[in-house]
Amino acid sequence: MKIVVDDLSGSEIARFLNEHVQQMRSITPLESKHALDLDDLRKPEVTFWSIVDGDTVVGCGAIKKLDAGHAELKSMRTTPTRTRSGIASRLLEHIITEAKTMGFTRLSLETGAAEFFLPARKLYGKFGFIQCEPFAGYWPDPNSTFMTKTL
User: Fold this and answer.
1) What pLDDT is attached to residue 138?
2) Were both Cys, which of 40, 57, 59, 107 would link to 87 (CB 3.0–4.6 Å)?
């Protein structure tokens, strides 16, 4: 497996992200959905990584620059057939390292509060993320959990 910066031009990553958005829409009310679409993920303030096994995308994640020292973790996903296989941990470790290299001193995220998102919240906790107040234009939402980590 390898982790690569992805320009989001390929059809496989577009399909992978569309599946992610559709899954989130099936779980989370529309007003609480914060996943970025392809156009938003292609903006200059976003760096997007895919983790590929051979020619197959098995995971992805991104960071969005909020200010000079603060970035937001976005679009973390592992293909459902490969969950709990270490892909998310490997990718999150890579993204944290890259965020530090880019000069960020804080990394924050929004994830779901429902039971479905418990494995994600546990993963983030394992990597030192702690709960925090809403940030960067988010608002208190019973469907969201906000977490942050000092880098």
Assistant:
1) 96
2) 59
Sign of the CA dihedral running 149, 34, 14, 12: positive
Helix %, strand %, coil % for the chain, to 5?
A: 35, 30, 30
| CB 120 within 8 Å of CB 145 | no
For 55, the token pair is: 């020619």
Of residues 33, 89, 25, 80, the one with CA closest to residue 57? 80
Cα distances (angstroms) measured from residue 139 to each of 4, 41, 124, 142, 144: 32, 21, 20, 10, 9
Instruction: Please work out, in degrees rounded to the nearest 5, the angle formed at the alpha carbon of residue 132 by the alpha carbons of 87 and 130.
Output: 45
**pLDDT given at position 24:** 75
Model-level pTM? 0.92
Burial class (CB in 10 A: 0-12, 13-18, 19+), 137: exposed
Catalogue all structural domains in the chain, each as residue range(s) with its CATH number.
2-150 (3.40.630.30)
Q: What percent of the chain has pLDDT over 90?
A: 81
